[in-house]
Amino acid sequence: MDNDSELRKYFDFDETDLNANRKGYLSRRQQARDKKNARSPKLLLEIAGFVFLVLAFVPIIFLINRHAATALWLIWAVWLVTWIYLAVMVLRMSTVDPAVDKLKTVEGWVSTIKEEKSENHANKHIVYYWKVGGIKFEVANPDQAGILEQGATYRVHYLDPGKQILSVERLPEKATG
Predict the structure, then answer these.
(1) Burial of 117 (0-12, 13-18, 19+ CB in 10 A)
(2) Is the pTM of this model over 0.70?
(3) Are residues 146 and 156 both part of a single domain?
(4) 46-87 tens-digit pLDDT
(5) Residue 13 has pLDDT above 70, yes or no
(6) How many whole angstroms separate alpha carbon 76 and alpha carbon 65?
(7) Is residue 154 within 8 Å of residue 101, measured between CB atoms?
(8) What are phi and psi of 2, to 5 degrees?
(9) Element housing 20 (H / E)
(10) Are the C-beta atoms of 57 and 80 separated by less than 8 Å?
């Protein structure tokens, strides 16, 4: 079944992407886009990791200049271990390859959900979701909430975590009877 050009345009995929997703992997174009989207968070994690390492060693300057007591050295040792541990954990998170995100597929009829969200009583806004096969996907552009037909059956290929939709195809209605 040929996919609707509107779906292809909205979700930015082509036949090559869809065929790759059907086989359970990302197309080269999707891999490149996924890596590009992950550069900024990865860089921030790397910077945070190095800042934590610097924070681990800053107190030693104070301790050496002041000929500090043993108790302060013990506090610094705990400080050092804590910040080095945090630095290692953050730096390890930065090495996760975004292309390793799990490509998942879900099939089912679409239900469009409208929710009112409020951060406080004065600031309320409407958020739309598509629910397909029990999985909820946030609609990026509320004006496009109707692009997936309510009650129709679709197959959605997405990255987990994050529920980023990669490609969508409308499935033929099953004959009853």
Answers:
(1) exposed
(2) no
(3) yes
(4) 888 888 888 887 777 777 766 667 777 778 788 888 888 888
(5) yes
(6) 14
(7) no
(8) -75, 140
(9) helix 15-22
(10) yes
